[in-house]
Design the sequence.
């Protein structure tokens, strides 16, 4: 793994950022290069308080102060010391590059039959943390972070770059985590961290084609399922929560993809709801609260997959009914019919490339409005409101938010009840994550033009919700978690 020092007998690991590689063994010597913590240097001699070294990464010779490096001979006798330092720096923010250097030195020194999952677990955790830090708003312009990224690359640590919505996200490719999962002696905690590192939602290549994305999601699902119930019973509560959240979000995506292909999706949809419900909310850290909301939005978007499928082929009395027909290849057409208007002459016809959840269809008491949940993407669900007007039936499409569903934004909007008194209105619940900002609100909207009449952060603050909310919505929605 350590390419720069593979054939050396003595190696100096730089322990400080901006350590100077000088032309002469003096503080006044010309600086040949600025070294980075974790850099490996071949030791060729010693002069006063300087070591004479060769930097294979930069292909330069020079002198470095002995106090700024740590010597190792990369022998089996050094493994305990190297591992001790690795354990010390693995969870220290800002020391990832140094930790990667020590991990590489340990893997070079240790006999093959003595290497456990621990150094790979540490290596993967540090590489992932470095990528997260570099993806942050401040990290993108941090010269030291850039040097660390360049430094770890010399050890074979691949940091991938994805651009989406004008922002760049850096992600570790997960090679060390794959090695952990392949090692039978890995502990449940090590396996759990590896599974989480390999299945991040925000590290999916946004340029993947639909078939490639579906295959990747199935693989991610298989990785998470490798953490067995026996493993889960031995994990600390925080790791359990993170696995439940990751599974919930991914299974919601898989349920949508199954429904999109015309396959049975109820079992996967129910699994997503169960995983979300299994989270111990009392043990969620501040960072995990954000992950919890994100998983809930993903489950909320696909929650109708958990309900039994329905397709009403006949209308009853004069109440309108929805049916579906195939459109163009991959397209589903929704038809609004009643006793006098069959599929050949529907009241309204609208086609979608997404999933029209017929089980969600609801009609108001007067039979003048119909709601339908339509999910164009795995993490984005809209609400179709069909309304009878003096000019016939009209369709309004309500999005979760003014976001970009083709980017990183997620959300859902759902019908929560009809308000028959006074001016006809409809109750809505919206939850979204747009440009990293979470939003959840409950609305009373006018049926005629969908203008918001009242809104609040909780339904308890709206009298209309207390009186007219739909019991089925209250029982099924994840927005009331």
Sequence:
């Amino acid at each position: 793994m350590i390419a720069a020092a593979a054939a050396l007998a003595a190696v100096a690991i730089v322990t400080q950022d901006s350590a100077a590689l000088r032309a002469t063994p003096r503080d006044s010597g010309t600086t040949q290069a600025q070294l980075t913590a974790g850099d490996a240097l071949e030791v060729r001699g010693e002069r006063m308080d300087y070591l004479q070294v060769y930097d294979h990464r930069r292909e330069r010779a020079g002198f470095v102060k002995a106090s700024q490096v740590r010597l190792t001979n990369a022998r089996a006798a050094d493994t305990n010391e190297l591992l001790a330092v690795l354990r010390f720096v693995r969870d220290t923010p800002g020391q990832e590059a140094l930790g990667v250097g020590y991990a590489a030195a340990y893997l070079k020194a240790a006999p093959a039959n003595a290497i456990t999952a621990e150094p790979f677990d540490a290596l993967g955790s540090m590489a992932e943390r470095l990528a997260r830090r570099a993806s942050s708003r401040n990290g993108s312009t941090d010269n030291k972070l850039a040097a660390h990224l360049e430094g770890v690359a010399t050890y074979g640590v691949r940091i991938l770059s994805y651009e989406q919505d004008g922002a760049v996200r850096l992600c570790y490719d997960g090679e060390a985590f794959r090695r952990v999962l392949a090692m039978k002696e890995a502990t449940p905690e090590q396996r759990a961290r590896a599974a989480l590192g390999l299945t991040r939602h925000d590290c999916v290549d946004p340029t993947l084609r639909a078939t490639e994305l579906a295959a990747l999601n199935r693989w991610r699902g298989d990785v998470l399922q490798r953490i067995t119930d026996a493993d889960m019973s031995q994990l600390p509560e925080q790791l359990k929560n993170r696995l439940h959240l990751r599974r919930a979000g991914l299974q919601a995506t898989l349920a949508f993809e199954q429904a999109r292909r015309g396959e049975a999706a109820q079992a996967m949809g129910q699994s997503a709801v169960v995983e979300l419900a299994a989270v111990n909310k009392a043990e969620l850290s501040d960072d995990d609260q954000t992950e919890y909301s994100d998983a809930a939005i993903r489950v909320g978007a696909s929650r109708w997959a958990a309900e039994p499928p329905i397709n009403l082929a006949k209308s009853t009395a004069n109440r309108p009914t929805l049916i579906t027909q195939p459109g163009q290849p991959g397209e589903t057409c929704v038809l609004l019919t009643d006793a006098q208007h069959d599929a050949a002459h529907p009241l309204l016809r609208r086609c979608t490339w997404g999933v029209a959840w017929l089980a969600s269809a609801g009609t108001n008491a007067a039979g003048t409005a119909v709601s339908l949940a339509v999910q164009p993407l795995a993490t984005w669900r809209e609400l179709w409101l069909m309304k009878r007007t003096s000019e016939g039936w009209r369709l309004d499409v309500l999005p979760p938010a003014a976001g970009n569903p083709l980017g990183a934004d997620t959300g859902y909007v759902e019908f929560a009840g009809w308000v028959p008194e006074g001016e006809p209105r409809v109750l809505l619940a919206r939850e979204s994550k747009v440009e990293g900002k979470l939003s959840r609100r409950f609305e009373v909207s006018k049926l005629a033009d969908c203008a918001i009449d009242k809104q609040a952060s909780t339904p308890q603050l709206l009298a209309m919700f207390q009186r007219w909310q739909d019991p089925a919505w209250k029982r099924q929605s994840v927005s009331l978690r």
